[in-house]
Amino acid sequence: MSKKEVDSLIDGGNASAGPPLGPSLGMLGVNAGQVIAAINEKTKDFEGMKVPVKIIVDEGTKEFDIKVGSPPTSALIKKELGIEKGTGDASTVGNMTFQQLIKISKNKQDSLLANDLKAAVKEVVGVCQTMGITVEGRKSKELTQEISEGLWDDVISGKTEALPDRVHEEEFKVDEDLKLVVEEEEAPAKEEVSEEGEKPEGEEVTDESKAKEEEKK
Length: 217
Hints:
By secondary structure, this protein is an alpha+beta fold. It is 46% helix and 13% strand. The strands form two sheets. It has a three-stranded antiparallel β-sheet, covered by helices on one side. A hairpin with a 5-residue loop joins strand 2 (50-58) and strand 3. Helix 3 packs antiparallel against helix 4. The radius of gyration is 33 Å and the shape is elongated. The protein starts with a strand and ends with a helix. The relative contact order is 0.08.
């Protein structure tokens, strides 16, 4: 039997049986409620965004398949970070965690040219660069090189969510350098006193101070 397709642009996670989607499904003889529920489940991560969907219906069995398109990568990044727009210059408008980067990459993987998740991550990092977004405080060029070197492989594969050791070491070094500077600034000045409790050399000695010293003797 032939198959029919219905294309629609829906609100992610919030499709309804109202026009135009509902009537179109009704004409194909499928259970509109089941289709709508399946669409909302598949698009729940795109809540608040317009998402293209394609419903493919077998006219004989009334079985259906749903193909979900994806919003632009930049739209996913803005939603994830809660920002309205990126920047085209060298300034930074936001910073995301590596886990947020992986989440976006998984959502976009099917529509990207990437052959695997690692390549998809690198593509999304490239979009971050054009928007003025850093990842774990790292700019695109630095992070892309680290990914290519395999530094983030365990995180991308899901073996761990912990940042690579080198990242921790660099952060620790910065913190220690800052700590040393703060300690130097906050350290109280020490008054110079000789072993015998006398005032340091160079301080003026008056007749009065000499007399006091004689009295002590």
